Amino acid sequence: MNILILGATGRVGGQIVTYALHDRHPVNVLVRTPEKIQINNENLTIIQGNVLNKDDIVRAMHGIDVVISALNTDGTTTLSESMPLIIEAMENEGIQRIITIGTAGILQSRISPKLLRYQSSESKQKSVRAAEEHNKVYDMLQQSNLEWTIVCPTYLPDGERLGKYRIERNFLPEGGSKISVQDTAEFAFKQLKSRDYIKSRVGIAY
Known about the structure:
single chain; alpha/beta; eight-stranded mixed β-sheet; 5 helices; 8 strands; 30% helix; globular
């Protein structure tokens, strides 16, 4: 499977790159700073560019079967500005499958099921800016014809891969307060071979 990974220099994205190469998939990464990718692998193609540049995204998508986006918000609007370009390029290239890393804030609230967690008293986050960015992406994916899955981790410390965690469609598993970067990346990567969560958000926590 030819995979394009966006956000490959981030914590979750970098781990997904490792898993994909370990499984011997051909991997394209689109990065602004290629020097940040410290991996030498014959299956890895590093494309220098920017997710906000339509031509760069189109270039990175040639011959791709599936897109994994681990782009994060980083105090910017890159996430919501790049997603229309990503969706358009995928539709033009005939690529159906996209797996993205979201946030638990855009899952449904258990306290107020008509609201998302970040809009309700369930969320402990003081700032909702990142969740609002992820919510825009969620809305865009819902309106697209793509086969999308949004993996929604809660607090994301570095830590080892335990390989054991709880997942729930559209909600954060009850009492879940954290999930490691490695386990989040593993679950997202596993969605390449799974159709269980097409057009769904998935909460993940220990």
